[in-house]
Amino acid sequence: MSEDKRWVLILGASSGFGAATALRLAKAGYNIIGVHLDRRSTMPAVEALIAELKTFGGGVRFFNQNAADDVKRAWMIQEIQQTIRDEGGYLWSVFHSLAFGTLRAFIHPPDTDKKPGPAASRRQIEMTMDVMANSLIYWVQDLVSAGMFPHGGRILAMTSSGSHTVWQDYGPVSAAKCALEAHVRQLTLELAPHRITINALLAGVTSTPALEKIPGNEILIQKALSKNPYNRLTTPDDVAACAVELIRDGTHWMSGNIIRVDGGEDFCA
Question: What are phi and psi of 82, to 5 degrees?
Answer without folding.
Answer: -65, -40
